[in-house]
Amino acid sequence: MTYHMTFRGAVVPAEPGQSVGAALVAAGIRDWRSTRKGGRPRGLFCGIGVCFDCLITVNGVPDRRACLTPAADGLHLTDTPATADTPATADTPATADTPAPEDPAPEGSAPEAPALGGPARKDAASEDRVLGGGEVGGGHAPSA
Which among 34, 32, 35, 37 is positioned nearest to 79, based on CA atoms? Predict the structure, then answer.
């Protein structure tokens, strides 16, 4: 029995047990989404669900990993549209839509505690140990 899925108006055959990504690649289709920056084509990359290059829309549900989605008869597959609504980062300048980072705290005020993680980073002190500094189990092989 062969399944029949549709993608970009064409019928894509698939065998039972095959993933959507494998069926698309077997049909000669190598890309089904574009990157947010630059619009570069993406498709199957790792094939085992570790990366997210193979995101596809399946029956109207976006962002499904094609490599993990089992092929089935009657699936309607569409390209996952690239969205431009990414937050401002260090390499993306702030615009009128994205506020600039807040001003630093006034001089003399105590810094805020970190929201996540452990205590704030402390300065190096003389009691801090250095790897390989003569301590046992420092990660270095003994000298010959």
Answer: 32
